[in-house]
Amino acid sequence: MKINAESSIKKKTELLCGFVLENSNKVLGLTKIDKKIALSINQSLKDMEGKLGKLSIIPSPRDRYTNRILLAGLGKKENITNDTIRYVSGKIVQKALELKLKEFSIILPPSFVNESVSSISQIVEGTKMALYKFDKFKAEKAEKNPDLTIIVSKSNNISKTIRTAEIIADGVIFAKSIANLPPNECTPTTLASFAKIISKKNKMKCHVISKFELKKKGFGGISAVGQGSKNEPKLIVLEHNNGSRNEKPIVLVGKAVTFDTGGISLKPGDKMDEMKFDKCGGCTVLGIMKAVSELKLPINVVGIIPSVENMPSGESYRPGDIIKLYGGNTAEILNTDAEGRLILADALSYGERQYSPKAIIDFATLTGACIVALGTNVAAIVSNNEKLTKKINDASKNTSEDVWELPLNQDYMDMIKSDVADMKNVGIGRAAGTITAAAFLRKAVNNTPWIHFDIAGVAWTQTATKEKPYNPKGATGFGVRLILDYLQKL
Ligand code: BES
Ligand code: MG
Ligand code: ZN
């Protein structure tokens, strides 16, 4: 899909799209393009036309610009959020695809441009993300994507804004396309090769620590969880060094369990297939790193992805085992299905020790309890630092990837105390499962500002997931846009 901007309609378009507010009788921005068309359409507009997400196609009163006009409802003005344009743009592009168009145009209302350039980004994100389809394993492929012209009174920055938004959307799509791969086609080794591919393209450093070295260097968590599978564990590290030399980096860590059976503490069969998505945290980090390097952000960012397959076998780690983590703490294993915190603890300690970062941010499909607590549209965040949490909350508002903070005090830390080791890998029964998992991670970092995202509910579309045109079925790439917003503002 090619996207460009024009200040007027230069050549006839197959479909001219304009936004309409509920209970209003005008297509936003149309008067500027052609007063006569605007007048004739606006007269026939019904109040219903502006309902959020409603699309209606009408013949154009003049065929100079187009034969048909698509009216796209934005809902009531007071209900418009940061996500409205993204959402409605996704609806529009789905229509364009259904009509098998080669190209279409969207009029960006002047009032929206003045507020900020963000609505252009939202059109680009909303359309590109809605077009992504996971059809790698299907004979029948999706229709060819139509090109888009955004009609907007031009200013200098528009092509740069479009390019930036395209890179961000591509980062999301990259994350989704890997996360959607089935577990037989995506092992820790496959993930490592994806990391190498993006590092070569965009001049990042990449190194991968393999099974033998992981064990030798003391990555007790990754080694233990990985030992049950013939697909060997990897620790993948990507470095984007584009800030000043002595500037501390931001470290991003992502859980990448390519399949989580639960191990010896085997999961029930129902929906076990969805545990192919247990690598989504790692995929989010890959998507962010790809975009960070393409955007050439003038900062230092490190991506660390511990990757394993959690399988039951004669070689698996067991309940009762006591292992030593990279940070030095020992952990009593009480449930081999609580594997994410073990591999993340190693990666967090490694990130802190190796890079003395400004901040550490981790992503993980860590606990089923997170879905019980917050459902499937909001991620849980847990942090040791208020300033970092504030920045993440601000970014979350901009990108409409919703988060909610859970508390972490000493009482929760006490819940993971073990009789025989420094800590245990489960809390007390099911109580506060998301927080006790975070407490385990907290032990792996010392004083570095840290924030943890539990994306168990939001990483892929589940039964209770709110439908959004730009989140088609499967992995969502949650967190990619949010962290890129945060990083761009550093
Ligand atoms: N990957 C799962 C968490 C998960 C489950 C995410 C369902 C999304 C949907 C994780 O490894 C896990 O199994 N956690 C256990 C922890 C428990 C044994 C303390 C859980 O949540 O049941
Ligand atoms: Mg598990
Ligand atoms: Zn898991």
Task: Kindly summarize this structure in a few lines.
The protein is α/β, with parallel strands linked by helices and 490 residues long.
Mean pLDDT: 96
* Number of E strands: 18
Strand content: 15-25%
Say what the CATH topology of the largest domain is: Aminopeptidase
CATH architecture of the largest domain: 3-Layer(aba) Sandwich
Note the main sheet: 9 strands, mixed
The CATH C-level class name of the largest domain: Alpha Beta
**Number of DSSP helical runs:** 16
The low-pLDDT segments are none
Give the overall form: elongated
Radius of gyration: 24 Å
Bound molecules: ligand BES, magnesium ion, zinc ion
Between the first and last Cα atoms, what is the distance in angstroms? 30 Å
**Given the helix and strand composition, which structural class is it?**
alpha/beta
Number of structurally distinct domains:
2
Please estimate the helix content.
25-40%
User: CATH homologous superfamily name of the largest domain?
Assistant: Zn peptidases
Write the layout of secondary structure elements.
Elements: E1 3-6, E2 16-20, H1 30-33, H2 35-44, E3 55-59, E4 68-73, H3 84-98, E5 103-107, H4 110-115, H5 118-131, E6 147-151, H6 158-179, H7 188-201, E7 205-209, H8 211-216, H9 220-226, E8 234-241, E9 250-254, E10 256-260, H10 280-294, E11 300-310, E12 322-324, E13 330-332, H11 340-355, E14 359-364, H12 368-374, E15 379-383, H13 386-399, E16 403-405, H14 410-414, E17 423-424, H15 433-442, E18 450-454, H16 480-488
Parallel strand pairs: 1-6, 2-4, 2-5, 5-6, 9-11, 9-14, 10-11, 13-17, 14-18, 15-16
Antiparallel strand pairs: 3-4, 7-8, 8-11, 12-13, 15-18
Helix pairs in contact: 3-5, 5-6, 6-10, 7-10, 9-11, 10-16, 11-15, 13-16
